Amino acid sequence: MLIVLKYTILSGDSYTRISTDLAKCTGITYQQIASFNHITDPGKIKVGEVLKIPDTAGQDTHFRYTVRPGNTLSEIADGIDKAAGVTVEDIQKANPQISPANLQVGQVIALPSKESQLSTIGYWARTWDTSDAPTPGATMGLAFSGWADPAIAIADSKQTKASLKGAELIGIGGGNANGKYTADVLAQINSKLHGANFAGYQGIAFDIGIGDANLQQDFKSAFSLAKSLDYQVIVSVSHSAPYDIDNGNPNESNALMKSILADPNVDIISPMLYSSGHESGNDYTPTNGTPWTDYQNTQAAIMPSILDPDWYADAESYFRTHFNIALKGYIIWPRSS
């Protein structure tokens, strides 16, 4: 279930009232909200301010929303539009820990989308940390060892695979020397594919952070072979592109990323919107000068890797508003403690 907004309970609220009021706000825009609330600068809204949400004709107040930290008018309008049409049962399912008969003023509940906006919710399961729990609602689990050597990755992922939830995928590659891609490593991956060594997995996630130069054709070969054998192909990169190709050569990084974005055998591209794992929100900084506009024409589904499911709404709004890119889901990386 996709959560599109966090709502603060106000006096007189009930799930029925919330559902009914939301239904009248379908198609609302942030400009209409700004106008109705006499907001001259949409970039300046105050946490705790209660906004009156009109219908799309800009008439009566149909919904009230309390601004939360980090909210923007665009995010609020988008969340309200997506939640318009949810039923009482939908709200109950999104908040199983809350008694609808005992709502408290100031209590925060989750508002789900009226329909599934995601094709996939995934999570990275680190092979060295058994505490990595499946993300609620996950339809895909990715065993991640950090190794590019496929033999080591397969061996290290064996135990983790047994506990994956949803479709089971194996990650190849990583962000340090163990995860470095070379022509030889990609040839080994092809050999393991031919030898059915990935049997039991539904897909392969190529985590490309470090690699040699001029690997475009080698990756194309591996992607093509994996698809021909009915594996789903995912590529994950640091922000908008691999961060260390040919010892940090941005031209090589950009060239490889353009090849990945144009490859018809890549099903999902997952830009990692974090670096350290300690971030307090998504980091949209491009890598090595590769602009997000390069993602606009890819046929692959864009599913960012993020640290918190609650941050997906912000990512969805960011990519749609700035680049007209529709995201298709997300993958959770365990946040660093």
Features:
337 residues; 21% strand; alpha/beta; TIM Barrel; 28% helix; 2 domains; nine-stranded parallel beta sheet; Membrane-bound Lytic Murein Transglycosylase D, Chain A; two-stranded antiparallel ribbon; elongated
Write a compact overview of the structure shown.
The protein is α/β, with parallel strands linked by helices.
Can you walk through the features of this model?
It is built from nine helices and 15 strands. With 337 residues, it is an alpha/beta fold. It has two domains: 3-112, Membrane-bound Lytic Murein Transglycosylase D, Chain A, CATH 3.10.350.10; 120-332, Alpha-Beta Barrel (TIM Barrel), CATH 3.20.20. The protein has a nine-stranded parallel sheet. Strands 1-4 form a two-stranded antiparallel sheet. Strand 6, helix 5 (150-161) and strand 7 (167-174) form a beta-alpha-beta unit.
